[in-house]
Inverse folding.
């Protein structure tokens, strides 16, 4: 993936990321606390499923884009939304359920990378862009586009968190 990841119009600090990291540091962030990066407040899985099935609001896409500082083009690519479709989603104010599910997956991975880098969002973004030897030289961000690829990225993050050499 050759896209620029950072959105230069976005400020470097996000209150959502700071709140997420504070909760993660406390040891009690909750299993689904990462949905806060989308602007959701529910941490109950069935409530999250309901939101996904209805389609997340376009505001959730925008909120995660601001929080992650991924450019709109990169995030749309990660969630597999074409430019024209993204414009329609913006006008409709809602993502399709499958797009919402992919956005949730990317959000979960980004939150795990935030935890790996102890709340340093810039380090998490840089890690997503860097080729990873343990992923066959692929960039984690490129693998995050698919369910299987994202599972491999998540497994790598778990291994790194536990000090397993890759």
């Amino acid at each position: 993936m050759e896209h620029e990841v950072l959105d230069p119009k976005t400020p470097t600090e996000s209150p959502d990321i700071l709140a997420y990291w504070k909760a993660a540091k406390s040891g009690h962030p909750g299993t689904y606390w990462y949905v806060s990066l989308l602007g959701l407040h529910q941490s109950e899985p069935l409530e999250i499923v309901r939101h996904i099935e209805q389609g997340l609001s376009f505001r959730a896409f925008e909120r995660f884009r601001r929080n992650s500082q991924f450019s709109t083009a990169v995030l749309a690519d990660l969630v597999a939304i074409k430019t024209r479709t993204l414009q329609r989603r913006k006008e409709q104010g809602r993502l399709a359920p499958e797009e919402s599910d992919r956005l949730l997956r990317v959000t979960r991975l980004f939150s795990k990378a935030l935890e790996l880098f102890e709340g340093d969002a810039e380090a998490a973004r840089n890690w997503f862009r860097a080729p990873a030897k343990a992923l066959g030289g692929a960039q984690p961000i490129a693998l995050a586009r698919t369910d299987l690829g994202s599972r491999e990225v998540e497994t790598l993050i778990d291994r790194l968190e536990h000090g397993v050499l890759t």
